[in-house]
Amino acid sequence: xRLFARRFAFEFPRPALVMGIVNLVADSFSGDGITEIDAALxxxxxxxxxxxxxxxxxxxxxxxxxxxxxxxxxxxQLVRFIERWDVNVPLSINxxxxxxxxxxxAAGGDILNDIGGLPTDENxxxxxETDTALLIMHTVGTPKVPHTHVGYADVxxxxxxxxxxxxxLAESVGVPRDAIVLDPGxxxxxxxxxxxxxxxxxxxxxxxxxxxLLPVSRKTVIGDVLGLPPAExxxxxxxxxxxGFLRGAQIFRVHNVRAAVQSLRMLEAVENKSAAxxxxxxx
Length: 283
Hints:
Layout: E1 2-5, E2 8-11, E3 17-23, H1 37-49, E4 54-58, H2 71-82, E5 91-95, H3 98-107, E6 111-114, H4 122-130, E7 133-137, H5 155-172, E8 180-183, H6 192-200, E9 213-214, H7 220-226, H8 234-246, E10 251-254, H9 257-270
Parallel strand pairs: 3-4, 3-10, 4-5, 5-6, 6-7, 7-8, 9-10
Antiparallel strand pairs: 1-2
Helix pairs in contact: 2-3, 3-4, 8-9
C-alpha cells in the first residue's frame, strides 16, 4: 500500500508516521496556538527535529464557541506560513473550506486535511487538480457547530458506510486511491463511548486498504475518562497511540511529537516492526 502526496511517497508497511500540529490561531483548544509566523515556523522546525514526518497547519480553530474566521483571513495566514516553509517534509493543510483549500494548495501544500467530512466533491476536485493527497475525516454536520446530540445505532457501521461513499466520490473526480487517507474523526460528532469503540475496533477500517490516521492528541475523550484539561492529557494521548498502533493505525496526529515518536519506536521494537521500511522519501 502506498500514499502519494505531490512530491512525497510513503510505502506501507513501514514505521508509523507522526503528524505534528501547528495551530496558527490564537484560541487553539489545547492552548498552543501561535499567530506570529516566525514563531510558528520555529515551532514547526522543532517538531521536525523531534521526528515529525508530516506537519499539519491550520489557521481556523475547530472550537465552537465562536463563528468561523473570514475565509480570506484563514487563507492569508496559511499562505504566509507555506511561502516560507523550507523543509523537505510534507505540509498538511487543515481546513474544510474549498476557497481556502484552493489558495493554500496552490501556495504549496501537499495534503488536504478536510475536517468537514467531504460533503461535496469540491475539495476532492481541488486535490485531483493539484496532485495532493486527500485526508477524509468522518464527521456529521457543519464544522464550528456543536454536535453533542449526535448518536449512532452502530458507529463502526456508520464509519464503514461513510468511507465507502466518500472514497467513491473522491475517485469519481480523479483522486487516485493511492492519494487517500482515512481519519475516523475522534471527538467529531461522537460521544465518549463512540470514541472508545473506534479505538477498540479500528481494524474494521482496514478493509479499505488505505492508511488510517488517528487524531489522538489531547482529545476530549481523554479528558472525559481522566478528568483532565487539555494541557495534562499527554500521558492519555500515549495510551491512545498504543491502542491505535496495536490495531493497525499508520499515522498519528499529535501536539507532543517527541513523546509520540518515542512511544511508537518502542512499540515497534517490542512488536518487531522497527525494520518495516524507510522513514520517508521524495517522489
